[in-house]
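Exercise 7.
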Amino acid sequence: MLINRIGRQVTSKPSWDKQLEKTLQEAHLISTKQIELAIEEAKNTGKENIEEILVHRGWIRQETLDFFKEKWPILLRQKSRKRIGYYLKESGLVTQEQIDFVLKKQKEKTKCWIKFGQLIVIKGWVKSGTIDFFIESVSEQSQSTDSSCSLSEKLIERYLAGEINFARLKLNYIRLNNKVLKGINFNRTELKEAEFQNSHLNYCSFKNANLYHSNLEKSSLKQTNFTKACLEEANLQDAYLEEADLRNADLKKANLHHADLINTCLHGADLREADLCEAYLNGADLTKANLNGANLNGAYYDENTAFDRNLDPISLGMKWIDIKEVKSVMCANRQSLFSPFCMTT
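Solution. The predicted structure, written as tokens, is:
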């Protein structure tokens, strides 16, 4: 049992990175059942680190976990493409000796038709699903920079033709800065590291979408639905999120500095280590939200802001301000004619 910063008793929850879990499952390195068993063991034993349990049970190597936590996100951002063997070795899934063995077999005439990944699978060293994951990811990585612009152009063309349903698509790295895209359905769409800076996305739906590390700075998101969306490490600084639905959204380490969150629903949202400094939270619903490590210094609230019982906003550095004064300050400080804070639509 832990004591939070306002003296309230809280039950400690096992520590686990949902984005890492998603990646490892896509790579066929762990299963949903294994995760469930590890979480159950953590609850029963009082352990807080799920990763340690997975490694201890022999379901995954520590070297592999470290690779996908620390190296993989960096490698995905690089423009240069490496051979599949490099990723397998770096992740600890195969050794250099195994790679040399496969390369030698490929040179033999009777084996020359078999691909590198196929030989790795035949030997039983790596699952075929894991090989497919690396091939697809590397292919996407090599094409992301060149295709992101053409992908954006195609989406805009379809939108202007009247299409608004873009659900369940893979649009990672797409660049849609300074665009007007109201009422689009992006539910369950992959939008990792997407660029939406200064775009108008009012009334769009991003339910269960993956917006990890995306850029939504100064974007207009009035009444936009982000229910259960992944916005971990997303940049939402100065974004206009009035009346948006962020219930149960993953906002860990997200940048919400000076964002307009008036009348926004953040019920059950994961805001651990998020930056909410100077954000406007008048009328917002923060009940059951995880605020551990969140920076709320200078954030504004009023009598309509909903907190969990016994939470003291003043102790978190928040300031009370009347909603009329908030609107006056927003319009007085707008940076351009297109500032979303004074929009009516």
